[in-house]
């Protein structure tokens, strides 16, 4: 996983609420066994006509947003399916940061696992950042994770909250499995203790 | 000790260790695996040289991609075939128990888990699938995870989690004729919205919930995620214990009695604190359905499609108009009477034997309306066989329904069961998002009985007219 430190990028405004993960990546593209290559299908239904041609009005089909690194939306981004293909598709497109007033829980979690920083900011601030984003290449935003600020084109800094453990993992680009395996002893102890206390716990064995 | 909720009790009993910032290493009892969200996780284990820690707590099944037609024929779509073959290679390599395509025990993972006694009260259960919330009906803490977390569970049998907040949804009273668990849950989602449960685990309580059978409770918990909650819960009771008793992977004999003694402690303490409480009266819930492309767009079947002009927020008004346009409906239009092209009875929400009986009771002696394609996709091979023993297959087939093999099917159209652009579907599934059942497809979510009513009349219909 790539580290997330400071990102300066074009931001794409997508002023919609309840953008579900089916919209970010429809189910028919989930047949891959890889994590890469999904960017071309990101927002497929919003982005392409049924003949495969681009819808010229969709923000990610317009310059300079084809190179967007930040996406700003309204409430409840990423609701619905748990598919991690949604953050994979965003990442493959080039999005490293998503900003919204609220996120669905599973999507929020999945972003962190892939080096994407999801930032919760109040609706009116998201709207102001979308106004910045509409300036296109002149409206680049900077996201500084260490300092926990979004820097607007006029230099104004907007603070955001992030869980300290998640911040650490993102800044270092760490995989949390290695971290959890350092607690192997505690996991084994838990299993042994519970096995004694709850002898009815069954194992799944198929002959 | 302070009074605890059911969620608190299950949570506390699975904390391996609390980290400095309050994150818990949470032990996972059951890991359900399917072909779509697991290949990258198995690949991750291989690349990092890690083992799968507890194959005996893991079960794999193919459901999302599988054809629901003749299973003895090769799978036509090469990518679907590849995903299924990849799972089969992975379960062999990592020694994971597996119900293959031709096994009677194959089916939708959220039907199979409870049916086999793999999902039990008091457990923590995860799967790379948001509808894992279904298993909360057993009185288990069950939630969907992404593929990175799938790999984390495979490698460590734990997850890094922070505790959720507690919400209680209380439904009291007696359901009217033609009103089912699906109507109750859609009414709840319509009340609290698709983000109303974000950050919460919802415990469903009250006399109406207690009165539901396990299939009904599973329907309720299944759609917790459509209310934004990762997990739903119903406290285990005699209905639960009766359901679990004798299932293949449940504890048997003396062990079962010991387990029940423990499971009986899994109820909220008197005075336990809930961060949010929502109350509904069963008598206030009519048969309902969705009109739009979000599960919260719930209206009574006797109702009309809302008018975006009544919405003051500009962005919301534009979204409502977009929904109307996508769905091919007019503001103020009566929803009953809107013609349907397809009826889908199935999915992890409503494909259990009780659901099929409910639909069959409406279909019996009637025929599918001309021009309508109606299909029944049982939730598992076991459900299908049971229905056939009861003669339900004949009821559906004689009426002109398709009677298909088990799988996720047209809930999300990863297999060949898809809507074509513009087709309107009365569906017992859980999501009505744009394109969910196929690009351009239009979905109305409703109960199996309401779906059956739409099939035989050819339009969205108040099922009470057919009882």
UniProtKB/TrEMBL annotation, chain A:
Q: Which domain of life is it from?
A: Bacteria
The role this protein plays is: Catalyzes the isomerization between 2-isopropylmalate and 3-isopropylmalate, via the formation of 2-isopropylmaleate.
Supply the name of the protein. Answer: 3-isopropylmalate dehydratase small subunit
Q: Which is an annotated Pfam family here?
A: Aconitase_C
Q: Which GO terms describe its molecular function?
A: 3-isopropylmalate dehydratase activity
Reactions catalysed, semicolon-separated, are:
(2R,3S)-3-isopropylmalate = (2S)-2-isopropylmalate
Q: Which NCBIfam families does the entry mention?
A: leuD (TIGR00171), PRK01641.1 (NF002458)
Tell me the gene name.
Answer: leuD
Q: CDD domains of this UniProt entry?
A: IPMI_Swivel
Q: Which UniProt keywords apply?
A: Amino-acid biosynthesis, Branched-chain amino acid biosynthesis, Leucine biosynthesis, Lyase
This entry carries the following GO cellular component terms, namely: 3-isopropylmalate dehydratase complex
The EC number on file is: 4.2.1.33
Biochemical pathway: Amino-acid biosynthesis; L-leucine biosynthesis; L-leucine from 3-methyl-2-oxobutanoate: step 2/4
Automatic annotation (TrEMBL), chain B:
Mention any Pfam family matching this sequence: Aconitase
Locate the residues binding [4Fe-4S] cluster.
348, 408, 411
Q: Name one GO biological process term.
A: L-leucine biosynthetic process
**GO terms of molecular function:** 3-isopropylmalate dehydratase activity; 4 iron, 4 sulfur cluster binding; metal ion binding
Residue ranges of domain Aconitase/3-isopropylmalate dehydratase large subunit alpha/beta/alpha in the record: 8-458
**Cofactor binding comment, as recorded:** Binds 1 [4Fe-4S] cluster per subunit.
What InterPro entries does the database record attribute to this sequence? 3-IsopropMal_deHydase_lsu, Acnase/IPM_dHydase_lsu_aba_1/3, Acoase/IPM_deHydtase_lsu_aba, Aconitase_4Fe-4S_BS, Aconitase_4Fe-4S_dom, IPM_dehydratase_rel_enz, IPMI_cat
Cofactor(s), by name: [4Fe-4S] cluster
| Keyword line | 4Fe-4S, Amino-acid biosynthesis, Branched-chain amino acid biosynthesis, Iron, Iron-sulfur, Leucine biosynthesis, Lyase, Metal-binding
Pathway as given in its UniProt record: Amino-acid biosynthesis; L-leucine biosynthesis; L-leucine from 3-methyl-2-oxobutanoate: step 2/4
Q: Which reaction does it catalyse?
A: (2R,3S)-3-isopropylmalate = (2S)-2-isopropylmalate
- Annotated Gene3D superfamilies: Aconitase, domain 3 (3.30.499.10)
Q: How does it assemble?
A: Heterodimer of LeuC and LeuD.
Give the protein family.
Belongs to the aconitase/IPM isomerase family. LeuC type 1 subfamily.
Q: What does this protein do?
A: Catalyzes the isomerization between 2-isopropylmalate and 3-isopropylmalate, via the formation of 2-isopropylmaleate.
What PANTHER family is this protein classified in?
3-ISOPROPYLMALATE DEHYDRATASE (PTHR43822:SF9), HOMOACONITASE, MITOCHONDRIAL-RELATED (PTHR43822)
Protein name, entry field: 3-isopropylmalate dehydratase large subunit
Which organism was this protein described from? Gluconacetobacter aggeris
Source organism phylogeny: Bacteria, Pseudomonadati, Pseudomonadota, Alphaproteobacteria, Acetobacterales
